[in-house]
Amino acid sequence: MSVAHLDATFLALADPTRRAIIGRLTEGDATVNELAEPFAMSLPAVSKHIKVLERCGLVTRSRRAQFRPCRLNVSALAEAESWIQESRRVWSDRFDQLDEHLRDLQAGGEAAR
Known about the structure:
Elements: H1 3-13, H2 16-25, H3 32-36, H4 43-55, E1 59-61, E2 70-72, H5 74-112
Antiparallel strand pairs: 1-2
Helix pairs in contact: 1-4
């Protein structure tokens, strides 16, 4: 995943409305009208949120007769999750090294007493 794409994904997920839309789409495909139901905002505002999610690949739309249902693209979430897991591993290793270093310092200070 490119840095720009990763940035766009996290930017999209930073908004609570877009996270709620993603949450709803985990239950299955939905139209813009269905996605807009729980929000006190206009359909054009919800459509703008969906377009942000589409641009980073988290949501796709298909055509079914006159409807254009939205669908969650799980693989895009998996890419972000992969980045998070790798970062977690790196930071966990760094904290383990810091713990070891602090234990060594503490042990060295106790030996000097």
